[in-house]
Amino acid sequence: MMMLYRTASVALLAAAVTIAPAAFADPIRVAASTSNMAMLTQEIGGEHVDVTTMAPPDRDAHYLEARPSMMAALRRAELLVSVGAELEEGWIPAALRGANNPAVMPGRSGYFEAAAQVELIGKTHHADRGRGDVHPMGNPHVYLDPMRMAEVGHALAHRLSEFRPQHRETFRANAQAFADAVEERMPKWQERVADAPGVLLFHENIDYLMERLDVPIHGFLEPLPGVPPTGRHLRSLVRDLQGERGVTIFADFEPSRGAEFIKRELGWEYFSLPTHVPIGGTAEDYFEVIDALVEAAASG
Amino acid sequence: MRSTDTLHRHATKRRWPLAVTLAAWPLALLTLSSAYAQMPQDRAASHPHLEAHQQHLGGAPAGRASSEQVGAGTLMNPLISVIFDGVYANEFSGHIDDPGGFEMGHDHGDNGHDHGFEDGFQLRETEFAFEATVDPYFDAFAMLVIEGTDTIDLEEAYFTTRALPWGLQIKGGRFLSNIGYINPFHPHDWDFVDRPLVSEHLFGDHGLQDTGIQVNWLAPTLTYLKFGVEALQGDDDGMLTKYGHSAGPNLMTAFAKWGPDLGFDHAAQLGLSAGYGTIWEDEERHSTDMELWEDGHSWFAGLDAVYKYTPPRSYQGAGQLTLQGEWFYREISADYIVYSHTERDDGSWRFGEGRGDPDNINSAVTWQQDGMYLQAVYGIAPRWRAGLRAEALGLLKNQSHNHRTAGPNCYDEFDTSYRYSAVVTHYPSEFSFVRGQLSYSDFAADEPGGPREDAWQFLVQYNLSLGVHGAHTF
User: Fold this and answer.
1) Minimal Cα distance from B264: which residue of A?
2) Rounded Cα–Cα distance for residues B423 and B387 (Å)
3) Do A213 and A136 share a domain, yes or no?
4) Is the pLDDT of residue A19 over 50?
5) Whole-number pLDDT of residue B419
6) Is the pLDDT confidence value at B236 over 80?
7) A17 lies in a domain?
8) Same domain assignment for residues A191 and A207
9) What is the DSSP track for B223-273?
10) At A105, which CATH number?
11) Which residue, A83, A198, B166, B242, is most buried by CB atoms nearer than 10 A?
């Protein structure tokens, strides 16, 4: 009988020893809106975060709809990391409403928008829908500017520290490492596009990178943000850009028809490129995404 | 000693209801306080200006992170949107009447506003939606609908909690019930111009829309699993018919939804729902007698399923497929009584004494009806969607007490009604659409054994959203 007790208590102790570190190591459960935000969270959080990506990398985060799986992810999350500035307006608010989790509501420490941490480009004081799918508070696609991403990384390190103060130094060091990696690559990217004649973009998203690298932007295939290219708009682009040199760059989920027309009329090469890392992607994958966009701009 | 003990026990027993009442209060307080515990406590989140100040002083790039939402407009005001919905209808062959066994507004006294379309132009409805966060504890939503030009209907006015712990949420006020799939959606969210027959004829012109309270719980599971119960007053005529006054709530419903995680390309949700109505009464007057259905009750149960496919790199809806279907079954039980009556000399009616002929009293009769629809909608091009819908009413059972012919039952058996629709919708932007729909109805006769009626109808609809309107759930 005594033996049995001893065995039982040893087993209990063993269980406690196994479980306790697990509980201590308890990663922060993060629901990231896009794979780029998941990448940044993973880079900063390391082993102390458990990240779920809600939106696939090969689809426009603008046109998704709230799905049960997103609500399930938000229900269990301690932290929501989104791009913000209304990029995910079509689905995050609805998914939050169905997630019954007050901890990740806007205004709480569990709510984090990248766009809220940095200065946005393209702010406008004229917000009527006649101008297309405008974002009066600014262009939300901050994830395509590595410098801004580094800045977001610092803010995210700070936020993660609020959840697990014991790992503050790790988060800070990881954010610094990401920022250093960006700093190291910046001169190379700038040099690559120093003589780039300029680019034509599909949507106001890649302009974040082009503005950062001072690449001239000749225009957008969309007549208005969110409105598919029209023949009239494409013809006016061709008229304006006759005799100029450049390339057309657009995200892999955007249609290529407009760019094909530009190529026929102006001879401009076009590039359909990913703007997001694959699911589970790392900083290296992110820099490859940027590298490819830079190379495309440089090839003009 | 013994007697004191007994006395004591007796006293304790008597105080039970009081003890329950007293115990209920700490429980309520606990719930509220835990809700409060979930409130923002970090200073940065609740005082952005403070954070900005610190950032300014510190000047470090690693400033305290902001929790603010970057968005248009001022968040203090309700989001307001106005939705225009206009329809042009043309019934170019045959005539659409109520499907047999589903007579609406027959002898119910509410000289019905009928949601069938008149030939020609009509403003079906203009929706005014208001939405805001009330305080840290509540969100609220109201939708006023002007039907045509002169009828105002308070479609919804409800609050939802935003700070309850443990995955709980309470919704209260007037709202569209979450039973089934399409029920909580407003007309501007439908893929077809009109409401599915089963929704219209089992639950009413607005679906199951009622006043009451809902509690729902989202399980902390990897896949989406939600349960909810609703206690409703029972104003809904489709589900409950009642005369006189009776204390509510008279309708209880429950639902469960399960959404397996099928990756990024596929999504699905399966739902189960059921409801029980405690009151069901009706009457029908004839020249020689009056039929009464008394002390009745009703219940329904339904299944709903939706599947959505989004191909990789889909651009503005192209290639997206949505399959959706619902099936509902309803049973009504009531005591059936016939009063005989004769006309007095002055023209008024004199009812038979007592409860008529005992042979005509048939207690606790039950009758059943069901209905379903299946639809598929496909993104044929960016911003273009085309769809097909097949519907059946009274598929397994179509027994109705209305329009009955003389017979031993208090109900009649009707045939099945069918309707088939094809639709094409173009979305110039996220905020507008133009739609064309062709429908063929093949309806059962409104008298048992009568001739079926079929009709062709063509509908054109436009729908415009002005202002800021919240995103829609799956």
Assistant:
1) A56
2) 5
3) no
4) no
5) 96
6) no
7) no
8) yes
9) SEEEEEEEEE----TTT----S---S--EEEEEEEEE---TTTEEEEEEEE
10) 3.40.50.1980
11) A83
Chain A contact set for B41 (CB, 8 A): 109
B208 touches chain A (CB under 8 A): no
Together in a domain, A106 and A207: no
For residue B217, list chain A residues with Cβ-Cβ distance below 8 A: 100
Q: How many interface pairs between A and B have CB atoms less than 8 angstroms apart?
A: 187
Distance from CA of A88 to the nearest CA of B (A): 10
Would the pLDDT of A227 be above 90?
A: no
Inter-chain touch B223–A58, beta carbons under 8 Å: no
Indicate if the pLDDT at residue B203 is higher than 60: yes
Pick the last residue of a domain from A161, A184, A207. A184
B44·A109 Cβ contact <8 A: yes
Q: How far apart are CA B65 and CA B239, in angstroms?
A: 52
Domain count, chain A: 2
Considering the domain boundaries, does residue A230 fall inside one? Answer: yes
The DSSP code sequence of A197-253 is --EEESSTTTHHHHHHTT--EEEESSSSTTSPP-HHHHHHHHHHHTT---EEEEETT
Task: State how far Cα A277 lies from the chain centre.
Answer: 9
Question: Does any CB of chain A come closer than 8 Å to the CB of residue B314?
Answer: yes
- The DSSP symbol for B359 reads G
* Residues A179 and A215 placed together within one structural domain of the fold: no
Contacts of B57 (CB under 8 A, 6+ apart): none
Q: Do A133 and B430 touch (CB under 8 A)?
A: yes
Q: Which residues span the domain enclosing A42?
A: 25-124+131-184
A40 with A154, same domain: the answer is: yes
Residues 6+ apart with CB under 8 A from A9: none
User: Which of A140, A164, A184 is the endpoint of a domain?
Assistant: A184
Asked whether residue A175 is assigned to any structural domain, the reply reads yes
Domain-embedded: residue A99: yes
Q: How far is B43 from chain A (nearest CA, A)?
A: 9
Task: Examine the predicted complex and report whether its ipTM is higher than 0.85.
Answer: no
Q: Express each pLDDT in A191-225 by its tens digit.
A: 999 999 999 999 999 999 999 999 999 999 999 88
Q: How many angstroms away from the CA of B158 is the closest CA of chain A?
A: 14
* Beta carbons of A68 and B223 less than 8 Å apart: yes
Residues A82 and A216 in one domain: no
pLDDT tens across B406-458, in order? 555 667 888 999 999 999 999 998 889 999 999 999 999 888 878 899 999 99
In a shared domain, residues A255 and A164: no
One domain for residues A152 and A292:
no
